[in-house]
Amino acid sequence: MVKISDSQMKGLFKSAHLAKERGEKLDKVFADFAVKTGRAKGSVRNFYYSTLKRAEGDGELRQKYLDGANLSANKIIGFTDEQSDALLEKVLLGVTFGKSVRRVIFEISPDGKTALRNQNKYRNLLRFDRDRVERARQKILTEYGKCADPFERKRLKATSLALLKKEINDLFERIGLSLKAENEKLKAEIESLKEQNRVLQLGLIGKNEKPVQEYFSKLDVAVDEGKN
């Protein structure tokens, strides 16, 4: 089994401490650490909790790896589905009636630590559980007739970007058609000049047939070069 260095162990407990403050589960912390050290995620989980258990009675071990972090061997409890729904509904309802997200979270949180946990959970729900957010919005819409849209800015940005792309494509298409029409016009004018040249040749060829042919031959070459 790959040996775990002291710096890696400190990194594991630091990541766990940050996850706890954010109200997040430790599964991702264990998975990331497992990849870095070549261990199974379950093995990392067991190692983590067994080390915490030992650190409870070993101040030196706690100071060495936990660096004074407030961690315990009790597993961090994440948000239940009911708690996630309630958080979403409270925040969205408050924003619907003129409050900021920060103010709502401050009002529903008993302390700063809980406020940070609620804030991070709300952001994660917006990022990773859009279906749940939309269900909460529909519930508020049904009950109150209106509901703030937390995705409105992103939707407007996406719409604006799509419109800009369409305008650019339309512009290129118009430029292409214009150039094509101009090119066809020039071709027609060149063909007309060549035809006029031919008629002039037929009318002027006589005694000085050879010089006239040479002159118009050079003129044809000049016209063709201008075309290219």
What does this structure look like?
The structure is a single chain. This protein has 228 residues and is mainly alpha-helical. The chain has 3 domains: 6-66, no CATH class; 81-144; 152-227. It has 10 helices and no strands. It has helices at residues 6-22, 27-37, 41-55, 59-66, 81-96, 101-108, 112-128, 130-144, 152-204, 209-227. The two termini are 73 Å apart. The model has no long low-confidence stretch (mean pLDDT 77).
Topology summary:
Blueprint (H helix, E strand, L loop, with lengths): L5 H17 L4 H11 L3 H15 L3 H8 L14 H16 L4 H8 L3 H17 L1 H15 L7 H53 L4 H19 L1
The geometry reads as: elongated
Number of strands: 0
Distance between the termini: 73 Å
Tell me the number of structural domains.
Answer: 3
The quaternary organization reads as single chain
| Average pLDDT rating | 77
Considering DSSP H and I runs of 4 or more, what fraction of the residues is helical?
over 70%
**Low-confidence segments, ≥5 residues, pLDDT <50?**
none
* Tally of individual helices: 10
Largest sheet: none
Secondary structure class reads mainly alpha
Order of secondary-structure elements: HHHHHHHHHH
Give a short overview:
The protein has 10 helices and no strands. The protein is mainly alpha-helical and 228 residues long.
